[in-house]
Amino acid sequence: MSSENLIIETDGDLLLIFTRRVQKKDATAVNAVLGKRKSPHDTSDTVTMLVSSKHMASASSVFKVMIEEKMQRASKTSTKAKIELLLPREDPTPFVIVANIIHGRNKTVPEKVEYQLLVSLGLITERYKLEECLRFAAISWINNLHPKGLGNFPNWVPGCNKEAVYINFLVWMFGMRDTFMLYTKIAILHSDENFEFPVPSAPRHLPAIIAAIQKARLQVFSDLFAALRSFHMRGTEAISYCQTTPKDTCDFMTAGSFMKSCARHVAWPLPNLPYKGLRVKTVIENILETGIQSRCKESNPDSKNCINDQMFEKMIEVQIKVIESRISGLDMIFFLRMRLSLLSLTVRMSRLAMRRVRQTLERGPDPE
């Protein structure tokens, strides 16, 4: 087994050992980060990275524990000057960027990274608690990831689903409050599903972010379709709202034309949970394209006294547009407080359960 050696710190005393998992199609991108191999025929399947244990321990509490444990074992079993840490599950491509940042080698740190590499860097940051160390570089990467502007977010990330959630997780992890609110709003507006996808090695807070975006998205759809159903129900009630001759003709025309317009622009019957395949932004735009045909307008196009026309306009202006204006992203501070409240509740429940177990043990078995 051959090894490719990378030197981050010349006087380093810690050797990180990785297993290379690179497909041929990814070789060019990987070499751009790791540097050229020793020769075109190099087939090494491991990568070693010489770093400073002091730098790594200072940047990461996780690495500090790993290094201290390794040093204790090495002092008893080995006389090597360097200690070794095996990281077979880690990808050396993002890790070399992390190591360069930790060691202050700023000239070697890229100003831009592709989406997949950014996600890998974020997962490493979360695993090894490197948020403070990588924060400024990560903010630059995130801001440079989408040069055309945030308004084109759905076209930037295909599907605006799994990828959007990971970006929101990264923004949240690095404390970008305004960007987190904006990105989560974009995810709510443009997602076409409920993020029901498998997440291997999911970061701790990712499921909570998914749940919050999902809940907000479903609530918007529920409000929109409730407004449409309410208007339709009023048009089909026994009470006649518009006093025309013959009686109820205007109501009949209004209800029928409304159903036809919904079928053409939105859907009829109106969809129910979980609204898969629908995007909030698109549905709102389609609702604003709907219309009605009333008997009053048919008889007199300039008439403004038809109660059905007034109710429809009010439904659009007061309900649909207000619902759209109230759509907002997640507030990071509120989100953190909610997470702390849930954590506090979990701790209290655990303590209560432990107290009951202790009381049961002290009481002993029930007499027969």
Could you characterize what this model shows?
Among the domains are: 1-94, no CATH class; 215-325, no CATH class. The longest helix has 32 residues, at 332-363. Helix 4 crosses helix 5 (115-128). A four-stranded mixed beta sheet has the order 1-3-2-4. 58% of the residues lie in helices and 6% in strands. The model is unreliable at 24-30, 36-42, 147-152 and 154-159 (pLDDT under 50). The chain is built from 15 helices and four strands. It is elongated. It starts with a strand and ends in a 5-residue tail after the last helix. The protein is mainly alpha-helical.
What would you say about this model in short?
With 368 residues, this protein is mainly α.
Strand content: 5-15%
In N-to-C order, the SSE pattern is EEHEHHEHHHHHHHHHHHH
Largest sheet: 4 strands, mixed
**Which regions contain 5 or more consecutive residues with pLDDT less than 50?**
24-30, 36-42, 147-152, 154-159
Q: What is the mean predicted local confidence, pLDDT?
A: 79
Which key terms come to mind for this protein?
368 residues, mainly alpha, four-stranded mixed β-sheet, 4 strands, 6% strand
Strand-helix topology:
Layout (H helix, E strand, L loop, with lengths): L2 E5 L6 E6 L7 H8 L11 E6 L1 H7 L1 H17 L5 E5 L4 H11 L12 H14 L2 H15 L7 H4 L5 H12 L3 H14 L15 H30 L13 H17 L14 H8 L7 H5 L7 H19 L6 H32 L5
Parallel strand pairs: 1-3, 2-4
Antiparallel strand pairs: 2-3
Helix pairs in contact: 2-3, 4-5, 5-6, 6-8, 8-9, 9-10, 10-14
